[in-house]
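hey can u check if this looks right to u? its 89 residues, i copy pasted from the old doc so theres a chance i mangled smth
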Amino acid sequence: MGNCKTTYCFILNKLRAAGHRITEQQRIVVREILSNQNVSTKELFYLVREKNSNVSQASVYRTVRKLENLGLLQRKSILSIDASQFQAS
């Protein structure tokens, strides 16, 4: 997994460790979540589409669900990354 110092890298490594293949669409979704916390999943979809019109709504929702299942994201009506997970040991 390498020496990872950024939240972005940490999240991608967690996805890989869980057996997920990392796609360019997922990378875009993760970057947008980190740049635009406290947005709804629907708003996130529109932000992602501004960056890449080839990312589908299903890809955004699947990525959010994967992050949520790994305990990296909390989804209520807004998205929020749990920063406490990224503290250096």
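The chain has four helices and two strands.
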